[in-house]
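Recall the central idea of this unit: under ordinary conditions, the amino acid sequence of a chain determines the structure it adopts. In this exercise we apply that idea directly, starting from the sequence alone.
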Amino acid sequence: MSGQILLSLLLGGVIGFEREARNKPAGLRTHMMVAAGTTAFTLASIYGFSMVSGQITRDPARVAAQIVSGIGFLGAGTIFRSGSSIRGLTTASTIWLVASIGMLVGVGMYWLAIFTTVISTVVLSFMPAPIYKLERRLRVGEPSITPDDDEEL
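Accordingly, the structure predicted from this sequence is:
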């Protein structure tokens, strides 16, 4: 079980490193803690509550459901609105994603957790460039047609 926590720290750290390198609100340590915490909660839900009052009362899905909904509050703290722009949505989604990676590790789905980490890191690292170029192209030098106040389209 300690190996699972270490794997979660590592995988969460990969995504957290990318966020840290871009100076985002939640970085390396936050992502590592979320991944390790969700793994610990998942393991506790599987093994920690197996015997209560002499009856088997194991329902790991209950804790998992609470992780999924509860992690949104942590992610919401990274979202900021400034005028007409909203910042932090990607960081909020990476916190939610890292929680899922921690849960995957907790239930023993290591390859899926590793795949999710790798593919997510690829998306985070390489997707912004084309989007920023498109936004720049739309803002700079592109004519736009707007109707006059008394004109109908």
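The first strand starts at residue 51 and ends at 52.
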